[in-house]
Amino acid sequence: MLKLNIQTEAYWLELGLGVKVKVRPCTSPIFYAARAFMNKRLTELGAEYRKRKEIGASVDDLPDVENPEIREALAEEYLARGLARSAIIDWDGILESTGDDKAPVTPEKIDELMTGFWSIAASFSEQYTGVRELIEAEKKDLSAAPNGTSETAQDIAGTAPKRVRNARSKKTARKA
Predict the structure, then answer these.
(1) Residue 23 in 3-state DSSP?
(2) H-helix or E-strand containing 21?
(3) Three-state DSSP class for 37?
(4) Do the domain assignments include residue 139?
(5) Are strands 88-92 and 11-16 parallel, antiparallel or unpaired?
(6) Contacts of 132 (CB under 8 A, 6+ apart)
(7) Does residue 52 form part of some domain?
(8) pLDDT band, very low/low/confident/very high, at 7 (cuts 50, 70, 90)
(9) HSE of 142, CA atoms in CB hemisphere, 13 A
(10) If residue 89 lies in a helix (H) or strand (E), which one and from where to where?
(11) What is the overall mean pLDDT for the chain?
């Protein structure tokens, strides 16, 4: 079941390690912009990889885009970065690498955060896209019912009679 309590105002997410980010609501345009960012990055990386392979240049400094697991991981990373770039409008707990000044919210700093701290990137993706809420909703729908079963459907079986005869214990001929 889906509740349509869609966020319309910016809100804060606590990502762990003392980091909080203020985000725009996760709307379809933001998600599709992030997916376009992901596709563009993957296309650029694939083109560079193929170009180097064709001319016999080294690809050692590039991810192995021929490996499906690596491609999937890159897609997730680029999607998280795209979402973060589109969504994050403010943050707390993010400091410049030197000194104690708050880092400005820029695409480059967002990329640094998302690529440098996998736990932050994972927490952001889960919370921002609502994965946690979906998991919790599934748990709620599949939780044990008061009678101890996990079945929550309406009981449609009729009531069994209170007293029935026992089944025959030995083979006997049926009466006609």
Answers:
(1) strand
(2) strand 19-23
(3) helix
(4) no
(5) unpaired
(6) 126
(7) yes
(8) confident
(9) 6
(10) strand 88-92
(11) 85
Question: In which band, very low, low, confident or very high, does the pLDDT at 164 lie, cut at 50, 70 and 90?
Answer: low
5-13, long-range: CB < 8 A, 24+ apart: 10/89, 13/123, 13/124, 13/127, 13/128
Nearest to 74 by CA among 38, 103, 102, 100: 38
Name the domain count of the chain.
1
**Separation CA 54–CA 66 (nearest Å):** 14
Angle at 69 between CA 63 and CA 75, to 5 degrees: 70
Q: pTM of the prediction?
A: 0.71
Instruction: Please report whether residue 95 resides in a domain.
Output: yes
Which residues span the domain enclosing 23? 11-132
Residue 175 has pLDDT above 70, yes or no: no
Q: Does 21 have pLDDT greater than 80?
A: yes
- Is residue 41 domain-resident? yes
Q: At 171, is the secondary structure helix, strand, or coil?
A: coil
Q: Which two tokens stand for residue 130?
A: 């609502």
| CB of 7 closer than 8 Å to CB of 26 | yes
Please provide the size of the chain in residues: 176
Query: Under 8 Å CB-to-CB from 108, ≥6 apart: which residues?
Result: none
The reported pLDDT for the residue numbered 4 is 72
Q: Which helix (H) or strand (E) holds 88?
A: strand 88-92
